Amino acid sequence: MADVTMTVNGKTVSKTVEDRTLLVQFLREGAGLTGTHVGCDTSQCGACVVHVDGKAVKSCTMLAAQAAGSEVTTIEGLASGGELHPVQAAFREHHGLQCGFCTPGMIMAAVDMINRLGGPLDEATIRAELEGNICRCTGYHNIVKAIAAASAEMAGVRTAAE
Amino acid sequence: MTSSAEGIGARVTRREDKRFVTGKGRYTDDMTVPGMAHAAFVRSPHAHAKVTSLDASAARAMPGVEAVLTSEELVADGVGNLICGWMIHSKDGSPMKMGAWRALEGDTVRHVGQAVAVVVADTPARARDAADAVVVEYEPLDAVVDALDALKPGAPQLHPEAEGNLIYDWEIGDQATTDAAFASAAHVTRMEIRNNRLVPNAMEPRAALASYDEAEEHYTLWTTSQNPHVARLVLSAFYNIAPEHKLRVIAPDVGGGFGSKIFIYPEEMVCLWASKKTGLPVKWAADRTEAFLTDAHGRDHHSEAELALDADNRITGFRVKTVANLGAYMSLFSSSVPTYLYATLLSGQYAIPAIHANVKAVYTNTTPVDAYRGAGRPEATYLVERVMETAAREVGMDPAEFRRKNFVRSFPHQTPVIMCYDAGDYDASLDAALQAIDYAGFAARKAEAASRGKLRGIGFSCYIEACGIAPSQAVGSLGAGVGLWESAEVRVNPVGTIEVLTGSHSHGQGHETTFAQLVSDRFGVGLDTVSIVHGDTDKVQFGMGTYGSRSGAVGMSAIVKALDKVEAKAKKLAAHLMEAAEGDITLEGGTFKVAGTDKELPFFQVALAAYTAHNMPEGMEPGLKEGAFYDPTNFTFPAGTYICEVEIDPDTGKTEIVDFVAADDFGTIINPMIVEGQVHGGLTQGIGQALLENAAYDEDGQLLSGSYMDYCMPRADDVPSYRLMTTVTTCPGNPLGMKGCGEAGAIGSPPAVINAITDAIGSNDLVMPATPAAVWQAIRQGRTAEAAE
Q1: CA B629 centroid distance within chain
Q2: Which CATH number is B301-470+634-788 given?
Q3: Same domain for A129 and A157?
Q4: Tens of pLDDT, residues B422-450
Q5: Rounded Cα gap, residues B662 and B680, in angstroms
Q6: Residues A122 and A68 occupy one common structural domain
Q7: What is the architecture of the domain spanning B31-141+203-256+261-294?
Q8: For the domain with range B3-24+485-630, which CATH number is right: 3.40.50.300, 3.30.70.2860, 3.30.365.10, 3.40.50.720?
Q9: Which residue among A100, B356, B493, B785 is least crowded, i.e. fewest CB within 10 A of its CB?
Q10: B613 C-beta neighbours (distance < 10 Å), count
C-alpha cells in the first residue's frame, strides 16, 4: 500500500491505495470524481485524459503514485466560478457531443492542444492532434468545429489581453 | 417565450450538455452502493471446448473474495437460459433451431470470452486476481468461424439442436416470377458480396450494478441499456430473476449504444443473481477487451446477388442468396436482422417487379451477432447499391441516370418484399446531391487529380431504410415476441411546469432537448419549464426503448397523443373558468384565449385550477395528467442520396475521402443540429466499415482485432467534414410526419465509398474494409487482368 497525496482541482487529496492503483482509479474511486472515464484498456481512446502539472495525460496509463505531489486538473475543475471554460462552452454551442462519454477526455485534450499550439487552429491540425481520442457518436465533425471556434476565441482573448 | 424560438425545427442547443461537459454525467459505473462488491468473470480462452474441470479452491481462499459462482449453481437456482425473442420459420415451415445459452457455461464453451464462472470480491482488482486463479481445464474441440465453412459437410457442430449449424433456411418473395424475369433478361449482373463483421464499440463499455434487498425481496439493477423495460420484462418473464414488481431497472446516462445495448447479456443476469447469492450489491464494468469479446457484433454476410435488366435497362428481377453468421448463440433479436430487417429492403429505391431472397442463418464459434446501427438495412443497401453501380457500368449507363430510370415515383408503392413505401421523392435527393457535388465538374477534377498522380473516383448510394418499428400486429405476425408501440405520460404540475415520461431512452440522441421542443411548440411554454423523464422502470410504467430510429416517429408520437389529451382537458377547464364555449378556446404562446374576445388565462393558472379543484366543470376529475400508447400504422421510410469522392494514391493504396455529400429525406425535423449530428456519426461508422473496421478471426476462433490497437476505429483524421442537406416529404403515417435519422448515415455510406474506390481504380473486385493493402492489391490485379487481355 502507498500513501498518495496530490492536489486535485485545487484541493489536497490524500489516500492510502494499493501500489498498482492507476491515477484514473484514484480520481474516480478515491476522490469521487467520476467525470474522468475509462473507455479502453490500451491507452487508445482518451476518455481518461486529465492534466497533470499542466500537461495532458491519459490517467489510465499513469500510476497514482507517479502523480504524487502533482497538480491534477480534471473535467470537474475546468470551469471556474460557474462559468464554463471556452472549450466546454464551444462543445455545447457546436453540438460537439452526443452520449457524453468521450467528452471529458476530448475537452481536456482540446484545452491542452490549444494551450500548446495557440490559436486559431485549422481543421487539419485539430484532426491530427485528436489522434489519441476516439468518439463513436459525433463523427468528429462538430468536435473539430467546436475546437476551432474555441481556439479562435481563446486566441482573441489572449490577443486582447496582450 | 414563443413556440417558434424553441419549438419544432429550431436549432436549440442541448439541455443535457451542461452535465456532460462538466463531468457531471452519471453513468452506471459511476454509481456506488454501500457495501458494494465487484464481479470479474472467468472466460474461455478457447473458441470451442469441453469444460472438463473447474477448481476454484485457490481463488476462494484469496483475500477479499466473497464467492466464486459457477454454472452448476446458476442452473440449480433455476436461472433461465438466454433467449432469442423473434421466431423465424424456415421455408419448409419448421421453427428456427435455437441452441441452449446459459449465462455461465459449465459443459461446452462456444466462443472465446464466454463466461464459465464469476468471482465476487471487495475490489475490482482482487476480483480480477481471483478470476485468474480459477483453474479451468478444457478439452479443445475443432472450431469453425466462417459461416460458409460452418455449412459444409463435416464442419464442427456447435449445438445438438441445429443440425449442420443451420438455424433457419428462410425465403421471401416469389421465386417463380423472379426466375422467369431472369429467363427473359436482356442483361444480368452477378456479384458475390461480403459484408464485413463489425464491433459496435459504444465508448462506454457495458456495466451493471445489482442490489438485492432481502427484506423486500426486491432487486435494483443499474445497467447500460437502451431499453430498461424490455430488460426487466425479459429478466422477469424468461430468466426467472424476479417478478416485474420486484425488479427495478435503471438505465442512467448511457454512453452510446448503436444496438449493442438493446440485448440482455449474461453478465447483467449474473450480477443480479450474484447479489442475492452473496447478499452484497455487485458491480461489473466491462473492460474494452470484454466488450470486443462479448458485445453483440454486427453484419457478417456472404451474399450472391443477381440483377435482371430488360433491353431498356429497366430492372425486371432481383435474386439474392445470403448466408448470415449469427455467432455462437442466438442473441435477443438476432434472427430478425438478416430476415425482416434485411430482405424487406432489397427493393431499394427502385421499382422491381420480382424479388426473391433466400437467407440461411448459421452458428459459428464467434461472438453472437445482433443488431448494430442499421441492423440488416446496411447489408441490404450495400448489396443493392453495389449491384446498381456495377450494373450501370456493365450496360454503359451513367450510374445516376441508371438509378433515376428505375426509381419508384408513385406512392404508396408496394414492393414484392412486404414493405409498402408511403412517401418519398428520390429524384429530389439525387438532384440535390448531384448539384452539391458538382457532378458535371467531376471529369475535370479527375483529370486534375491525375496530374498529381492520384486516382480520383466518384460513387453513389441511393439508400432507403425502414424505421419507426413498428406496427405491433404486423411484427407479431412476422414472429416478434413483443409489440413495438411506445408509451408516454404528460404530467402538468400545479405550477404549470411539465414532466414528460417516455418509454424511449436517450443515450446520445438528445431527447431531453427534442422532446421538450415538442411540448414547447405545442403549448407555447419555455423549454425550461419542461423536463423529460426516462430510463427508470419505477418512474415510467413501460416502454419499448430506443433503437431502429424509432424515438421520434414512435416515441414522440406517443407524446403527441398524451399532449392531445392534456390539451383537451385543459381547454375544457379553461372554457369553464372563462365562461366560454369549449370550441372557442385557443392555446397560443402559453395562454388560453377565448376567440374574438380579450379574455385569457395563462397556462399555469389553468394547471393550478386543475389541482385546487375549487371550480371544475361538472364531472371533471381534478389534476392534469394524461398517458398514451402509440402503435405505429406502418414503418417509416427515410431515404436519400450519398455521393462520395475519393482520391487514391496508387503507390500505397491509401484512400482519402476528399468530398462527401449527403442529401437525406427524414420527413419533419425537430432539431436540425441534432439531426446533423446523427448523420455525421452514422456516416463515420459507415466509412469505418468501408475503409477501416473488421472483426477478424483466425481459423481457431481467436479474435485478432480485439483491442483498439488492432481494430481500426475511425479517428478524427480518417474522415472528412461532411456536406449535408435535406429534402422533405413528410411521413403520412404519424402525427408529426417524422421518419427517423439515427441510422441513415451508417446505412447509406459504405456503398458510396466502395463505389467511389472501384470507380477510381477501375477494378470492381474489392471487399470491405478497403484498407490500403486491399486497394493496392485490387489495383495490381486490375492491371494484371488488363495486361492479360
Answers
A1: 22
A2: 3.30.365.10
A3: yes
A4: 999 999 999 999 999 999 999 999 999 99
A5: 10
A6: no
A7: Alpha-Beta Complex (3.90)
A8: 3.30.365.10
A9: B785
A10: 12
Whether the domain at B3-24+485-630 and the domain at B31-141+203-256+261-294 fall into the same CATH topology: no
How far away is chain B from the Cα of A140, in angstroms, using its nearest Cα? 6
Which residues on B lie below 8 Å from A107 (Cβ)?
Answer: 21
pLDDT of residue B3: 45
The count of C-alpha atoms lying within 13 angstroms of the C-alpha of A19, restricted to the half-sphere facing its C-beta, is 1
Question: Which residue in chain B is spatially nearest to A37 when comparing CA positions?
Answer: B204
| CATH code, domain carrying A90 | 1.10.150.120
Q: Is B510 on the interface with A (CB under 8 A)?
A: yes
Q: Does B289 touch chain A (CB under 8 A)?
A: yes
Task: Return residues 744-773 of B near A (CB < 8 Å).
Answer: 745
Question: What CATH number is given to the structural domain containing A57?
Answer: 3.10.20.30
pLDDT digits (tens, 9 = 90+) for B443-485: 999 999 999 999 999 999 999 999 998 899 999 999 998 899 9
C-alpha cell at A150: 474555441
Give the closest-approach CA distance of B20 to chain A in angstroms.
Answer: 5
* B705 in contact with A, Cβ within 8 Å: no
State residue A161's pLDDT score. 65
Domain membership of residue A27 as a residue range? 2-77
Same domain, A40 and A67: yes
Smallest Cα distance from A39 to chain B, Å: 6
Same domain, residue pair A69 and A16:
yes
> Tens digits of per-residue pLDDT, B361-373?
999 999 999 999 9
Interface confidence, given as ipTM, is 0.97
User: Most B CBs within 10 Å: which of A17, A99, A113, as the mutation test of the B interface?
Assistant: A99
Mutation site, B29, B203, B687, interface A, largest A CB count within 10 A: B203
Q: How many domains does chain A have?
A: 2
The C-alpha cell that represents B148 in the structure block: 460458409
Looking at the structure, tell me whether residues A128 and A66 fall in a common domain: no
Does one domain contain both A31 and A69?
A: yes
Least Cα separation, residue B229 to chain A (angstroms): 20
Cβ–Cβ gap A84/B21 under 8 Å? yes
CB of B254 less than 8 A from some CB of A: yes
Q: Helices A141-161 and A103-117, interaxial angle, to 10°? A: 40
Rounded Cα gap, residues B618 and B615, in angstroms: 9
Whether the pLDDT of residue B1 is over 50: the answer is no
Residue B336: partners with Cβ closer than 8 Å, 6 or more residues away = B86, B88, B376, B478, B479, B480
Partners of B20 on chain A (C-beta within 8 Å) are: 97, 100, 103
* DSSP 8-state code for residue A45: S
Kindly identify which residue of chain A lies nearest to residue B14, measuring between CA atoms: A92
- How far is CA B416 from each of CA A89, B344, B354, rounded to the nearest angstrom? 51, 8, 6
